[in-house]
Amino acid sequence: RQQVGTVTSGTRSPILRKNIALGWMAVEHAEIGTQVEVGKMDGHQKRLPATVVRFPHYDPDKERVKS
Question: Is residue 39 part of a domain?
Answer without folding.
Answer: yes
